[in-house]
Design goal:
Keywords: ATP-binding, Helicase, Hydrolase, Metal-binding, Nucleotide-binding, Zinc, Zinc-finger
Organism: Anthurium amnicola
Number of helices: 13
Radius of gyration: 48 Å
Order of helices and strands: EEHHHHHHHHHHHEEHH
Pfam families: Retrotrans_gag, zf-CCHC
Largest sheet: 2 strands, antiparallel
GO molecular function: helicase activity; nucleic acid binding; zinc ion binding
Structural class: mainly alpha
Strand content: under 5%
Helix content: 40-55%
Protein name: ATP-dependent RNA helicase glh-1
Shape: elongated
Length: 364
């Protein structure tokens, strides 16, 4: 330790091996009195990128602050909602149900003089009721919230004069007064008559079933249960479908519709295959196809003096008949000669075709 001056101040000794540089800020003077090199500063381009980075950080901080404020606001709303629910549970439940109902965007009814529009409105509203599982006591308030113009005025008057401003009007009672106003008796009678005379005609089975379901509500006494619905549906089918389905005695409408669709598809496939076979068959040469007589028995040739007099190009009639459920053969006519015990040659009872007396006389 060395001492300098008269004040006896101690000065640490400098180690010549200690070469650690001093840390000086730009522009400061070192202990030795020399200034730092100005070249240590970053170039201007890097300074710009640094400033942009600082701006990005500031924007992120600002967004975080805004999100925090929004989150706090939502939490306050949730707390207020739960507080309202605790104070008035019925009112909060009704508000939530109304919000769910409006979120599906229910149709608006303005009182048009068209039964189809009114019925469509009822159908869509009931569809929404099933989707949100609406309780019975809330159906009328929710449905009437979609009424506008003349329909709204009608309901305001009806609620006051008919129901006495009651709040417990059932959906069934509402539909009764609604249909009385927007479904006149004349229109209902017309639609009921259309349902009573409804047949398949040229419609497909699915189109016929859709029209059937649309009109059956106007004749509830006809479709009192599933068995009667199925019977009414089967009676309106086309002949070849009705004759096969009526004996099956379906107990539900769904079963009858399914059976009719299967038979219709089978018939269409059969006609398509038949058309393909007719297109692929070669055209017969004149004189090679002779007219044959078809009847209940097996086909027989015409007499020799009549053969070749008339040439035809047609499908045998036997292929166009359905299979008889009694004899399991294809034949025409409304009755089965085999089941009745008749002769296939003369149609009389008491002998068979092999025992036909006239054929024996001709052979003799």
């Amino acid at each position: 330790m060395a001492f300098r001056g008269t004040w006896s101040r101690s000065v640490p000794e400098m180690n010549p091996t200690d070469v650690t540089p001093e840390l000086n800020t730009p522009g400061e003077t070192s202990v030795q009195g020399a200034r730092t090199d100005q070249a240590d500063l970053p170039p201007p381009s890097e300074l710009g990128s640094i400033l942009q980075a600082f701006q990005g950080v500031a924007q992120v901080v600002q967004l975080l602050a805004q999100n925090q404020v929004a989150t706090q606001t939502q939490m306050q709303e949730v707390l207020a909602l739960h507080r309202d629910q605790l104070m008035d549970p019925d009112r909060s439940r009704g508000a939530l149900l109304l919000e769910r109902f409006r979120r599906i965007k229910p149709p608006i009814f303005k009182g048009e003089n068209s039964p189809s529009i009114a019925e469509s409105w009822i159908r869509e509203i009931e569809k929404i009721f099933r989707a949100i599982r609406c309780p019975e006591e809330d159906k009328v308030p929710l449905a009437t919230s979609t009424l506008q113009d003349r329909a709204d005025m009608w309901w305001t008057s009806t609620l006051r004069n008919v129901f006495g401003e009651r709040e417990d009007v059932s959906w069934k009672d509402f539909l009764t007064v609604f249909r009385e106003r927007f479904f006149p008796d004349l229109v209902q009678e017309k639609l009921e008559q259309e349902f009573l005379t409804l047949t398949q005609g040229s419609l497909s089975v699915m189109d016929y079933e859709a029209r059937f379901s649309e009109l059956e509500k106007f004749a509830p006494h006809i479709c009192a249960n599933e068995r009667r619905r199925a019977a009414k549906f089967v009676r309106g089918l086309r002949g070849y479908l009705r004759s096969r389905i009526v004996v099956q005695d379906h107990q539900t409408l769904a079963a009858a519709v399914r059976a009719a669709c299967l038979l219709e598809d089978e018939q269409e496939l059969r006609l398509e295959e038949k058309g393909v076979s007719l297109r692929t068959c070669p055209t017969p040469v004149a004189g090679s196809v002779q007219k044959r007589k078809y009847g209940p028995s097996s086909p027989e040739l015409l007499p020799a003096d009549q053969q070749g007099t008339e040439m035809i190009h047609a499908v045998p009639l036997r292929a166009m008949h359905f299979v008889c459920p009694q004899c399991r053969r294809r034949h025409g006519g409304a009755e089965c000669w085999k089941a009745l015990g008749k002769c296939f040659n003369c149609g009389e009872v008491g002998h068979r075709s092999r025992e036909f007396p006239k054929s024996k006389n001709q052979d003799a």
